[in-house]
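User: quick one, fold this
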Amino acid sequence: MSTVVLSGDGLARCPWGETEPLRSYHDTEWGVPVRGESALFERLCLEGFQAGLSWLTILNKRERYREVFHGFDVDRVAALSDADVERLMADPGIVRNRAKIEAARRNARATIALRDDGGLEDFIVGHAPDVTPTPADTSELPGSSPESKALSTALKKRGFAFVGPTTMYALMEATGLVDTHLVGCFRRGVSGRWPA
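Assistant:
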């Protein structure tokens, strides 16, 4: 159990955002709305790569992911060949998990198929909840929600992989669809979707 931490700069933060590079991520990105297919596809893929690992591991490798997945350009990722997958499996700059690498390619192809139905952004935002948690302590943080479960199910039906309810809840947190900055954190309300 942990509440906000008063940092040396006088700002109250979520306890996980106390040290770099997590502090910069917490202070500038986490909980901020993401717009556009490529940007949202990146977050979806990175959350999938993070499954079972720490976010710090993925954050430290994020720039390499951006390089090898062509800036998360959906069409280019969808076009990855089996030889490309093998090349990625040999790249020490990313997490070399075949299922996750193949899921990125599969998810790119599924994202292309969603374009005729409004696109990835509309699909994900369409599963946003009507209320957000108001956790004062880390023990009050949910790991999933009815909405993240529904999003997970809907994405799987559309051919996506590595989009379980917990992973989709993390995506909702990272992109401001829910606000789980702790009450008292100076970043609470940053999405503009929810009051501080």
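User: anything notable?
Assistant: The mean pLDDT is 96.
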